[in-house]
Design brief:
Largest sheet: 7 strands, mixed
Oligomer: single chain
Helix content: under 10%
Order of helices and strands: EEEEEEEEEEE
Strand content: over 45%
Radius of gyration: 14 Å
């Protein structure tokens, strides 16, 4: 099956930066959209940013101008560069990938285990 392995979370002061990475592995023919979601207690998981295989990007309004998403298609890896971090960015961040196991199949969403990002002084 497909696995997503995340890294890069941690504790950072307001105004600081973190870079999250997520690598997909397993039975993969291709990956359409890869992205990052985040969730805080009592709230639904929300989209932070995503990127298509062709490079089209979407960002939540709250992170525009501060976060940047990118991907390495050859490595099946997506990155999230987070700059000018605010306490409001504190959340568990989850990697997501829409994976095709076969050329004819509909993409299926897979999720990473989540990585904690804490922004605090």
């Amino acid at each position: 099956q497909v696995q997503l392995v995340e890294s890069g979370g941690g504790l950072v002061q307001p105004g600081g930066s973190l870079r999250l990475s997520c690598a997909a592995s397993g039975s993969i023919f291709s990956i359409n959209v890869m992205g990052w979601y985040r969730q805080t207690p009592g709230k639904q998981r929300e989209l932070v940013a995503d990127i298509s295989r062709g490079g089209n990007k979407n960002y939540a309004d709250s992170v525009k101008g501060r976060f940047s998403i990118s991907r390495d298609n050859a490595a099946n890896t997506v990155y999230l560069q987070m700059n000018s971090l605010k306490p409001e960015d504190t959340a568990v961040y989850y990697c997501n990938a829409e994976v095709k196991k076969y050329s004819y199949s509909t993409p299926y969403k897979y999720w990473g285990q989540g990585t904690q990002v804490t922004v605090s002084s």
